[in-house]
Design a protein that fits this description.
There is one protein chain. This protein is an alpha+beta fold. The chain folds into 3 domains: 13-110, Rossmann fold; 130-195, Dna Ligase, domain 1; 199-397, 2-Layer Sandwich (D-amino Acid Aminotransferase, Chain A, domain 1), CATH 3.30.470.20. Helix content is 30%, strand content 28%. The chain has 12 helices and 22 strands. Helix 1 (21-32) crosses helix 10 (305-313), helix 2 (63-73) packs parallel to helix 3 and helix 3 packs antiparallel against helix 4. It binds adenosine-5'-triphosphate and magnesium ion. One of its GO terms (biological process) is 'de novo' IMP biosynthetic process. Keywords: ATP-binding, Ligase, Magnesium, Metal-binding, Nucleotide-binding, Purine biosynthesis. Belongs to the PurK/PurT family. Pathway: Purine metabolism; IMP biosynthesis via de novo pathway; N(2)-formyl-N(1)-(5-phospho-D-ribosyl)glycinamide from N(1)-(5-phospho-D-ribosyl)glycinamide (formate route): step 1/1.
Amino acid sequence: MEIGPPLLEGSKKIMLMGSGELGKEMAIEAQRMGIEVIAVDRYDMAPAMHVAHRRYVINMLDGNAIKSLVRREGPDAIIAEIEAIDTGALTELEEEGFRVVPNARAVKVCMNRIELRRLAAERLQLPTTRYFFVEDVDDVRRVCKDLGFPCLLKPEMSSSGHGHVLVNNYDDAERGFKEALAHARGGGKRVVAEEYVKIGRELTVLTYRYSLNNNVVTATIPPIEHQRPEGVYHYIESWHPAMVSNGVVEKAREYAVRIVNELGGLGIYGVEILITKDGRVLFSEASPRPHDTGLVTLVSTNISEFQVHVRSALGLPTPEVRLVTPAAAHVILAETETWAPRITGLEEALKIPGVQVRLFGKPFTYRYRRMGIVLATGNTVQEAREKARSAASLIKVR
Ligand SMILES: Nc1ncnc2c1ncn2[C@@H]1O[C@H](COP(=O)(O)OP(=O)(O)OP(=O)(O)O)[C@@H](O)[C@H]1O
Ligand SMILES: [Mg+2]
């Protein structure tokens, strides 16, 4: 890939394809650097739109809508902030000379579990859970027997745990397969069946590629650890640094660098690593963008994952990201479905020293929608986690 010079000479413009909470923090970082921000999403007043120069509401699965908007606005970088984007349009735009961040292929591969597994497990030989790709119920029965019960089905394309189904026994296969397909994005017909492992710990290794004197350099941020109650897929809690041995950190970083270099482009990736109770370190998946568990870097590091992504997108370097304090983050979820939700408990939460709150400002809620995040620093990770947890429990969105 031709990298070229940094893009900051003259006024520059980024377009966020997806304007959620991650986009909002990227928009803020771009604004601070004098960059024009165009925020795009499928609904009006999405979080990043509050802090953008201009906003557009389009169906991002409609390739023509994306292409006409990009050609009209002519951004210097198109940042894919969500998965549900027409990747064919991104590929075409890239061929026309637009910079897609990190690149169109990475966006396409990372949203597809089958393509990503092929790349990570088959091409790069990274350790993963045992898996099979399945296309019908007979396949499911056969491979689940091999994987052992329960085994986990995931649609080829979906995010945030949608369509993850545990198959408990031989007779359960048909129900499981139907349910997984019912949640597949874009009417996908294939499913990944995975060995269901007992998870000890989960890490995110933020790994970024930036341009330095026309070369691409890959760097990692010390791993973040995160946790959600079993079967709950809304992101709950993360902390920084991860409380794992140096050996595990080394392995996790090695796997992250290998997959990210294979995916290429410029920008940050969130590489998800599972550590099983029996001590295996496994590559799970990668997001070609800042990661929700990486929101903790708004307080834990000298430079946040959002600033890293914006700098990398524009061809600028970030030679080192350092941990400055133990910190933790805890998500704030909506309780009910409503418009213009009321938020209570903020005053009590902010009485806790070291606590900050980011409310995303989403105009409507549904049950368990992510509405904000509590960030907390402490002398230890344990202290930060306790503060974040208690502050989050005080804040209600309904
Ligand atoms: N094979 C497995 N065995 C046990 N638990 C698993 C397995 N695969 C995934 N999980 C659990 O489910 C969570 C979500 O899985 P995964 O990251 O593949 O799905 P996702 O739809 O991309 O979710 P998200 O968008 O929240 O990352 C993991 O973080 C892990 O806690
Ligand atoms: Mg995941």
